[in-house]
Amino acid sequence: MSRRLQWGGRPETPVKNPYRDTFVVYGLLALLVVVIAWLTGGSVGRAIVVALFFFVVASGWSVYRLRERNRRVAEADRQDGGT
Question: I need a surface site. Which of 5, 33, 55, 81 has the fewest CB within 10 A?
Answer without folding.
Answer: 5
